[in-house]
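User: Can you fold this complex?
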Amino acid sequence: MKIKNIFTYCFISSLFLFSLICIWKILVTLQGIELTNFNFNKLFIFGIILCAINLLIGKKLNLNIKIILLALLFSIFDYLVSINLPIWYSFGIFLISLFFFNNIKDYDKNFLSKNHSSQKLFFNFLTLFGITLFSFVILFPFYMMLVTSFKTQALLLLNPLDFSINFAQGLPELFKSYFIVFKDYNFGRYMLTSTIVSLGTVIITLIFAIPAAYAVARLNFFGKNFLSTSILIIYLFPAIVLVIPLYTIFSQLGLRNSIEGLLIVYTATTLPVAIYMLQGYFKSIPKELEEAGIIDGQNWLGIIFKIILPLSLPAISSVALYVFMIAWNEFLFSLMFLDRPNTFTLSRAIQFLNVGAETPRQYLMAGSVVVTLPILIIFVYFEKYLVSGLTAGSVKG
Amino acid sequence: MSSKLAKIEKRTAYLLILPSVLLVFSIILFPIFSNIWISFKNVELKDLRIPEPRAKKLVKSINDNPNQIKVIYRLRNSSLTQEITNVKFKDKYPDDIEPISLNNKCQFKSNLLKCELGNWPKKYRKNLEIVFQNINNQEISKKELKSYKPKLSGKSQNILLTYEFTLNNFKKVIKDKAFIDLLSTTFYYTFFGTIGAIVFGILAAQMVNQKFFGRTFMRSVLLFPYVAPVVALAYTWELLLDPTSGTLNNLLINYQIIDGPINLLGQKYVTLNILGFDFKLRLALTTVIIFEIWRYFPLAFLFILARLQAVPKELYEAADVDGANPIQKFLNITLPQILAVISILFMIRFIWNFNKFEDIFLLTGGASGTRTLPINVYQQGFSIGDIGMGSAVSIVIVVFLLIFMFIYFKLLGKRADEN
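Assistant: Here's the predicted assembly.
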């Protein structure tokens, strides 16, 4: 066993412990508790000492007792160096150190004498820390969106770091922003428009795409290869190069400020990917089934409805969910085409709120939650379908 | 027989694809081509409204004479820039009413007043007054008169359909001093956004590819930024980064990491001192790139994770036997296996970041050095109102896009040959 290995082990472990503690401290600060110092020096050195102790004890003691003992020691030390903090803070520190020592309990002299032990150690910790950090960085804006919508303007300006939810004020007071957003800012109507537009896009896209995808997948015709490559190329053209001509044409035809106009554009822009995804799936359905259908005297309509559709329900749901997501989240076209508030979609309405007069931010965030929540619920619930849709359609985004 | 079947098959196929092809053609391909047309024209936003002849009808009673009435039409050309030719006017009247006198432009026949009002120049305004009387000497009801609305028609030149072309838009685009800056900003944003998303995607995929508690949940969480609506996310970030009441600045000040608030989205440059050298970092652009990475690394993660899970375990076991360390394993096994995915991802993300509009628009609106080509399309076309210029910038984007696509499909074809 090399001294170098022991030293790197202690150093990396303690750094990892300290990083975890830092994240916890930031979270605590965001609950409105005054905490201005990470106490880097003290905690880091004490962490190194505890890691060394852990190595010395090895397996001489019952492992469970060992980790509880070490975690307790660390939390007491942290309690001593920091002042005036609530008991749940120290309990959190205890749990984190418990988790940490549980992770390093198996490291002993034998492990450290193996090859590449320090690299392995480093990557183990990097993974654990990475997972924590990534979750924090990703979830924090969502958490902030939610909590801000539960606050009042005065509270937000008083302490911008206070992200605690005060349940004591009662539910009507807590959800006040939502009541106002739906009542005064007409979000119920916008939500209805968004739903109609998104569902409409899904239905029309499927009606157009299923026959076309079937033709591309199964039938022989002149220009088939050309068509299937151009689908991909067309799909790569972004909305921003379409926006000026469509704006001019739609203004002259009077299609701006109408849901129909939006439906046409959304359908056209999602069609290529829908056809591309569906034809790939249709190709994987055994041809024999259709041949049996032809012998039974079915025409192409019967084949599509009675054989292809029931078999490809998973693919169709993927496409439907993906198209729904695109239509629900779409912003550029709704910005260009809608300027009368009675035709707004949710995204456009939120942008209007932000640009317009000084809208209190809790209303803005309540609106954001209203537009985000449905799509996240759908995503979590139908994750399997949506992920396959994302993978297939992700050339765009 | 078989040729007949083939014919039916062909006909069915065309029938099935026709609706989609028509729709895509009219909404995607046609606009792309009309961009070329518009970019050679001098069109402004206010020219898009088709000029309309308008008339407001006023009915006034004449003193002491209830059976006579004066009708005034306020005629107006709605356009401030274009003339309307050959204006025709039509209005209906109730029975028993006829005009006392008419000028030579107008005719009254079977309750219908018809006028040929000739050409109206731009901003044209004039009143047309006609006095009517009741034949039976009865009182004329004003309400009834007002209930009929005049109908006007006229011909105007649609500026979009004329054959006047100009090269001015392209000259302006190329000669613009900011054009080089615009291009470099766009490439900077695109390149670092793409690379960052891929690097973080690899990191995240490596992590999630290991077994740990809550792994499936973690996979869902990692995709949140990608599936949530951009409007909500951009505004949340704006609040997060706000210099006065934003969380991030307050947090950094609270822990004494910085002395005063930094306006991350509103400051163009920040000077960094590294090893005695001063570096100018484009702050707002960097912040926007970080948002971009945050939002799109999930996609790279999804692709790379799928590929990682297909890497045979035996390879790693063999490497363990050979005594390879984790870095060697990553460089010699993992990286070659995911290289194909990464190159495709890079091309696709590059193309898409190059065209990204919403993210920057919502975060900064293109201010403080974050103006990219797509933002410029919007600003030229809608903020300044010069549709022709906006189109010309779109054409620049399309040209770059075609170059990227050419490279992309070349690479794709090469890869297909290898397999």
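The beta strands of chain B are 53-62, 65-77, 84-92, 97-99, 106-109, 112-120, 125-134, 151-156, 269-274, 277-282. Chain B is about 55% helix and 20% strand.
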